[in-house]
Amino acid sequence: MSSEKSNKILFLIGGNAGHGKDSFADYLTNVTCLWAETFTDAYAYGIKKIVHENYGVPWEILNGNKTVKESSFIYLGGQKTGMTVRRALQKIGQFHRVTFGATCWANAALQRAKRSGHRICIVTDARHPAEEIHWIGDEAASAGFLVVSVRVRRSSVPVNADHPSESLILAEPDESFSFLVENDGSLDDLKNMAEQVACAAVVLQKTGKKKIKKKGAGWLVRSPEGLLPYEPLLTAEEADTLSTRAKDVDGPHFVQELELDMVEGSACGN
Predict the structure, then answer these.
(1) Residues 48, 93 contacting (CB under 8 angstroms)
(2) Are 120 and 36 a contacting pair, CB within 8 Å?
(3) Are the beta carbons of 203 and 258 closer than 8 angstroms?
(4) What is the pLDDT of residues 57-71, one digit of tens each?
(5) What is the pLDDT of residues 22-73, one digit of tens each?
(6) SS3 for 216?
(7) Global confidence as pTM
(8) Distances in Å between the alpha carbon of 143 and those of 11, 115, 146, 197?
(9) What is the pLDDT of residues 82-123, one digit of tens each?
């Protein structure tokens, strides 16, 4: 693999069921797609495809939340079995890991990210840290990606650690993740954290650093509506120039310093 640097960023979103990974990924996508082509993926995509094509489970159930998958059942020959869709996904995923190697789903996602022409790829469901954070992180970095791992945690939602897809991610130390998102507030809080992580990742990619200052690492140019139509810049002078140019097209923009006041993690430092 080539070690040549590129401007591609791979986000790996990890956490337990019901803790907000998909919501965080949606907010992250809403931010990054304003300034870069963004591709959203999941390790479980191939598993869901197997269940959809072989057992006829609709995609709206397969892509539903934890409650939906736990209250829907697999049917064989028109007869309802005692197995929930969630349990079937877990068993099929584990069967393939045992049969074809533990990195099979992580490698499939990596190959899709490599083939994609998008600058940013967001994988929404890291559950097996050894393969879906560490292994893919090393392989993607060797291929020129900046790899940003994010733990999303909601302390009010209990974890049922009865399967490796839940127990392994629960046991993984916080230090393994670039950023920690404590999802115990409002949806607006989660949205703001997604914005901070997105901006921090771009600054890390531009500077080549492994850590980012909690304050003063970059500069943002917001639209009159408060959106971020441009990716973060490294200096106030760049931001002022862009803001002046954007004003002539879309009205007054405003410049502010990037502050990481809602996220923690191994990538946050001085």
Answers:
(1) no
(2) yes
(3) yes
(4) 999 999 988 889 999
(5) 999 999 999 999 999 999 999 999 999 999 999 999 999 999 888 899 999 9
(6) strand
(7) 0.91
(8) 14, 12, 9, 22
(9) 999 999 999 999 999 999 999 999 999 999 999 999 999 999
| DSSP labels, 167-205 | HHHHHS-GGGSSEEEE--S-HHHHHHHHHHHHHHHHHHH
One-letter identity of residue 134: H
Residue corresponding to tokens 């191939």: 46
Sequence-separated (6 or more) residues with CB below 8 Å from residue 270: 211, 213, 214
> Phi first, then psi: what are they for 52, rounded to 5°?
-65, -50
Residues recorded for the chain = 270
Q: Which domains does the chain have, with CATH numbers?
A: 9-48+99-210 (3.40.50.300)
Using CA atoms in the order 231, 236, 242, 248, what is the torsion angle rounded to 10 degrees? 130
Task: Provide the total of helices (H) and of strands (E) in the chain, helices listed first.
Answer: 11, 11
Pairwise CA distance, residues 254 & 240, whole Å: 8
DSSP class of residue 34? T
